[in-house]
């Protein structure tokens, strides 16, 4: 006789009346907890569940008995083995082999990753799951999911009086097979069978009513898992309940009517008013669309009310004009340089436009003329920028003052114009300049100084003459350089200090 059978024979519950799941169970088994070292298949004291149905019976028994309390062994996580843990177990009962990934359970249950890990740990601590292969998470490699064995705790067999036997003495203890059940546990097993056949769903949002429903109060007092059947649903807007929901079903016509074409197909057809997935605009919609485009294209319509512009442009919008057609018409009509009220000016410019350009050909001709004018204006701007650039990049800019410019022109004309050649006798030589009042200077030195001063004056350098005027005085400087050169030098020097004249290299 196996050790499990001996233990079962020693602890057999006495017959008890029908009641809650916890009646009589807690007195026989004070607690339910499997340590981490015993959460493997080789070290587990329970037996393998042959199918998901019998395993869900054990899950509902643990949920209703209250033998397992998570907060006895940890200070965080869920406080009890409740409906959420049962929903996770339902997802595991449908897997064969039971190798769920955390991401899979998150998608199926709608819980967070941490919550799924908590409830898996609770199922292992309650003896309902045992590791076959534990998952691994190696950096740089794909995570491997854990493979579990669905186990039925030994406490479940003891509480319900289930008799098991080990058919092969060489086989491990978790392969025990059920041979019978005590009479005291048959009624409880029948209740667990009903719960295992139903599906626990995700709880709905709380209603706005402050007073809880009578059924909700009864479920809270009993402390059992609330199960919702897939077949039976409450039907709203009716007096009683029905086994079939009329709100969730769709009635289909017979095939004879579908074949003859008398009935419509349940699949909705695409609306003919939609073009490219967008709804076709009506008359008012086209007016507002054209008004919005005009406020975006025309600078003098920025800030105007779209509704007012739509009312002003209602004539051309109803005629099918686009914003390009309006731009072409405004080019022919002429635009004002200064605008005080954009909507009023647009109303004046669009007066009679739809009657003059009443055909698409006329509007296309106006658009071509507008685009040609735009291209000509663009080329003109390019030429202006090019001319301005060439002027500023030159070596010298003409002064802005007309008086100074005239004097500069006269100076350049005198300096660069060819001198008339007069026939003179070969024997007669050029008379040297007469310099009086300057002692110690020969005629050749004076002529060389005047030639050098004239050359510097031609390029705008007046420093040689102005220094002489400051040092010697104007009378002595005129005797040395001549009155004409001194006068021109002083004029250019005074013009250089003015903001209206610029000369020299940039």
Helix % is: 40-55%
Provide the domain count.
3
Low-confidence stretches: 1-28, 211-251, 255-266, 423-433
Order of helices and strands: HHEHHHHEEHEEHHHEEHHHHHHHHHHHH
Discrete helix count: 22
Computed over alpha carbons, the radius of gyration is: 53 Å
Order of strands side by side in the largest beta sheet?
1-3-2
- Main sheet, how many strands, which sense, barrel? 3 strands, antiparallel
Output mean pLDDT.
Answer: 75
Which class of secondary structure composition applies to the elements?
Answer: mainly alpha
The number of E-state strands comes to 7
Write up this protein.
By secondary structure, the protein is mostly helical. Helix content is 47%, strand content 5%. It folds into 3 domains: 3-197, no CATH class; 282-368; 395-416 and 435-506, no CATH class. The protein has helices at residues 3-10, 25-28, 52-65, 83-93, 102-109, 113-125, 154-160, 186-197, 214-222, 255-260, 283-297, 306-312, 314-318, 323-333, 342-349, 353-356, 360-392, 402-416, 443-458, 463-472, 474-481, 483-496, and strands at 47-48, 129-133, 147-152, 162-165, 177-181, 274-275, 278-279. The strands form 3 sheets. It has a 3-stranded antiparallel sheet with strand order 1-3-2. Helix 3 (52-65) packs across helix 8 (186-197), helix 20 packs across helix 22 (483-496) and helix 21 (474-481) packs across helix 22. The radius of gyration is 53 Å and the shape is elongated.
Summed up:
The chain is built from 22 helices and 7 strands.
Q: Which key terms come to mind for this protein?
A:
7 strands, 3-stranded antiparallel beta sheet, 3 domains, 506 residues, 22 helices, mainly alpha
